[in-house]
Structure formats: C-alpha cells, structure tokens
Specification:
- The structure is a homodimer of 294-residue chains.
- Chain A has eleven helices and twelve strands.
- In chain A, the strands form two sheets. Chain A has an eight-stranded mixed beta sheet with strand order 5-2-1-6-7-8-11-12. In chain A, strands 4-3-10-9 form a four-stranded mixed beta sheet.
- The first copy, chain A, has two domains: 168 residues, Rossmann fold (3-Layer(aba) Sandwich); 120 residues, Orthogonal Bundle (N-(1-d-carboxylethyl)-l-norvaline Dehydrogenase, domain 2).
- The radius of gyration of chain A is 19 Å and the shape is globular.
- Helices cover 44% and strands 20% of the residues of chain A.
- With 294 residues, chain A is α/β, with parallel strands linked by helices.
- The interface between A and B is medium-sized, with 21 and 21 residues.
Chain lengths: 294, 294
C-alpha cells in the first residue's frame, strides 16, 4: 500500500518507521528542514535500547502538496488539525485520524472521503530529534470506523511485529475511553509533576484522582462507571513509571492538549448545565502554565 | 528588658537580632548545636546586602529550661507549638505568640500567664544557616492582646529602626486578615510554583485567585469582602517578586503550614456545613507534595 502519514511528531515518526517495512510510506512534515533530514539521513527507530536506521521512508513538507495514496494517516495534535484540513477536505482517499480527545469528530463530518476511520494509540513514543523516535512502551492501536466499512481498511488485519492493530466496533466509546484516561491522568500528573503511578500510591493524590474521575464520568454520563474507573486505574498502574505527555509538554514549555481533553469536557458540562470544580481548576492551572511557558 | 525568644527559624533569628540592640535577648533553639553555633560565632543579620555580626544574643537549647524573662516571644511554626506548650503553660511571664493561622488561639486559653499577646509578622525573613538571617522585606509587626492590657507590653511603643510595631485593637480580625492573605497566596503559589505577582498578572491564575478568595471569604463569613479582596491583592502586588514560604517549604521538602492555614479553614467549613472546592483540592495537593518530599 502507498501510505501517507501527516505529522513528524512522535506518533507520525513511529507509524512511519513501523509501517515502512511492508508499505511505501511518505511522511509529510510541517517544515522542509525535517523532511530534508529524513530523506538525507533516514529515519531512526529506537526500541529496547537498540537503534535501527530505516532508509525507505520518503519525506515531504506538507506545503509541497499531498500525492496519491491508498491510505492517509493524520498524526498531528488536535490543535493542529484545522491547519491540515484544507489539504485533505476534498480528497477521495481513505483517511485515518489518530488524535486524542473528541473535538476532532466535529471536523470529520465535513470530509469528502467515503472512508474515514479514527484510531487511538496506546503505544508510548518519544521523539528524540527530527528523524529519531523511541518506541518507549509497546501497546496497540485501536481503530474504528467513522464512515465506511472497517474491513475495507486492510491495516486492521495486518500482522506487524510489536505493532498490533485492534478493531473497535464503536468509535464513540473507543474515543471516550481514551478521553477519560487522558482527562484524569494528564492534568493531575502535569500539575503535581509526578509520574503516573503516584496518583495511585500517594493517598492525597489518589483522593484527587477519584474526585476528578467522578466529576468527568458524571459530565460524560458514562454508563459503567465502576468498570471505567478500574480501567483508568489499571492504565495508571501499567504506566506507573511514565511521565504523561502533558507533563512533558509543560516541562518543554510546549502547548499541551488540554483544550482537546479537559476543554472539550468542560464545554460539554456547560452545554448540559453541569457543575464543575476540580476539572475547571486544573484546566485553568494548565492554561496558566502554558501562558507562562510561551 | 530581658526577652526570651523561642524558635531558631527565620522569624526567631530576625526578632533576636533586631531586639538585641536594646534588650537582653536569650534565644531558645530546638537543637543544642544551633545554640552552640550562635554563642560561639554570634548572630549574623543581612539587610540590603550588608551583613552585621551581633554578639550580644545568648542562646540555649529549649531542653535546658526557660529562665526568668520580662517577655517571652514564641516564634515557632504552629505545628511545633504543642511541643513547646508544656514548657510555658505555667509561666507567669507575659507571652507573645507569632504564629500564622488561627488554630493556636485554642491553645492560648489554657495558659496561666495573665498577659498573653498575639502578633502578625509582615516582614520578609530568610534563614540562611543556623546563625544567619536575611531581612528580605521590611514590613511591620502587628500586635494585639489576647489577655491583659496591650499597653502594658512596652514593646508596642518602642522605636526600633526598620522594625516597627503597630497596635491592633482586635486580635480576631488581625489574625483573620493575615489568614486570608496566607490562605489565598500560599497554596496557589506553592502548587503553581510561581512568585506572588504571577497570581495577578497571569489571567488564568487570577481567576483561580478570585475563586479561592470567594470560597475562603464565604467560609470565614468576612464582613467586608471587597475591602478584604483588595487587601489580599495589594499584598500580592507589594510582594510580587517574592516566593511564598509555602513554595519555599515544598522546594526544600519541609513540612508546610497548610494545616494551620487551609486545614483550619476547611475544618471551619465542615463545622458550618459549607461546601468547599478549590480550597479542598489545593489542601490535598499540598499534603500530597509534603508526603512525597518526606
């Protein structure tokens, strides 16, 4: 398959390196500089301390225009999506969106393509530099259909070592599950500046964890709260030693995904007339920190 | 006057150095080591970049027992007060308490002394080491009577350069004013890790500042909210470049005064059946950080 991947961040680089073994991959980057480095020096994938250089990935800056592909994967942050949409709005090619949060769904309704899929990435990935990515945590990618038949997307049936795909029947619950995990773990770890596991092991942080989950699950009107709570907790424990992406973003002084995550939930709360407390305070704390960093 | 001062922290060292010019000062420390350093090397006061060595302060460890004084000043943190009380419970000497918060008032009712005063310190002081203190912000000390006539405390009528005393008619409102200032500024700056001024200049932090003030002034049932709000804001701006004591405590991994400050307010809220939100979240964040540090 000819696969195009938009986005030269951690997720874009990881997908490009993982898929390049079986597919003809073109990686679209925001800057010409990154594309030129990748074309010149290759793409480096680090995994369990071992580094592999892959020279089959071709890279272009997005400004050069998108060529013909059998699948186009969008791996930019949700807050960059509006800048990308004009380039893909009118394409007929199958599209796969890997954003966190739920807010991007509103954009997808306007796309011309008859086959639109959404995915949730449960791998850990860390971008070291323009052409180096580390696969820090082996997980999986869940894919669901937003429009069109899921089985027409051959990717979901492929076997790629250390990079499994799982079909999901309902994009809403798939995205909501991830949203709840992100909305509870990311803001708390970012403000408290702790690894994920501390939210469970520190008795005071665990109280905040429970309160935030209660608030968010109430706003999202989750049907099975107890099960969802156990899921968030299990993710927290499975990634106990990790620093969340939001914590890392704040440390780097980068923009976070707070608007796509808590921001989205808070605007839902407003729409439903629900009261918010901790979620709203954490939102302001993160936004304030972003202002400071920028 | 023969003045005894209990506590070898920033406030104790500052009072000892400032009062030693006119009075015979004995400083009671927790450790023998600190007393021995002060007796051996003198007490060093740094002010506006200039350092002065004072050799007239005598120091003893509290375990050696308290000798006869005309005034005994207690300058330990509120959470250390219970350990000090047995040594002063049955003294007849006038007592002055310089703790933050309001919770120490409950202890004062049990004292035998007929003259008990409370003070609020609005100076900035930083302890560099066992016998060095820097007077970082010139302010004043408010003193009110808890028991006995205020004018019998000659200290309140003294003129000491750079170290003024002001009489306050009502200890309750004096302590509450300081409590509100501490309860709003300290926890927010400690969790957000910013200097006091950021709470006003950062638009998101200012929203949190307003919300926390609203919550606290509601719990304390302040009579003149608008005036009190302006007071807290003016303190924040006057100390814009300062790092709050709670922020410094967390950075050092020390215990903070959160129980004396927000803890006291939260237990009042519970007693009155008032709902709490941000105050309670901040309390848990600080307690969690203390647990982490310890």
């Amino acid at each position: 398959m000819r696969i195009g991947i938009i986005g030269g961040g951690a997720i874009g680089l990881m997908f490009a390196s993982r898929l390049s073994g079986k597919h003809l991959v073109t990686l679209y980057t925001r800057t010409e500089q990154q594309a030129s480095i990748i074309n010149h020096d290759g793409l480096r994938l680090i995994e369990e301390g071992e580094s592999r250089l892959l020279d089959s990935v071709m890279s272009k800056s997005l400004d050069e225009g998108i060529t013909d592909h059998d699948l186009l994967i969008t791996a930019v942050k949700q807050y960059h999506l509006p800048h990308i949409l004009p380039a893909i709005n009118s394409l007929d090619v199958p599209l796969l969106f890997l954003q966190n949060g739920y807010g991007h769904i509103a954009h997808l309704r306007k796309l011309k393509s008859p086959a639109v899929y959404v995915g949730v990435v449960e791998h850990g990935a860390l971008r070291h530099d323009a052409n180096t990515v580390e696969h820090t945590g082996l997980g999986l990618t869940r894919i669901a259909s937003f429009k069109g038949e899921l089985d027409r997307l051959s990717l979901v049936n492929e076997k790629i070592d250390g990079f499994p795909f799982i079909k999901s029947g309902d994009y809403r619950s798939m995205l909501l599950d991830k949203l709840v995990v992100n909305a509870v773990i990311n803001p708390l770890t970012a403000i408290l500046q702790v690894k994920n596991g501390s939210l469970i092991t520190n008795a005071f942080y665990y109280q905040l964890f429970q309160e935030l989950f209660d608030e968010i699950s109430g706003i999202l009107e989750l049907e099975n709260k107890a099960e969802s709570f156990e899921h968030v907790k299990s993710v927290c424990m499975a990634t106990a030693g990790n620093r969340s992406s939001m914590l890392k973003d704040l440390e780097k002084g980068s923009q976070t995904e707070i608007d796509a995550i808590l921001g989205h939930i808070l605007s839902m709360a407003e729409g439903k007339g629900k009261t918010v407390g901790l979620a709203s305070s954490l939102y302001k704390m993160i936004k304030g920190k972003e202002t400071q960093g920028g």
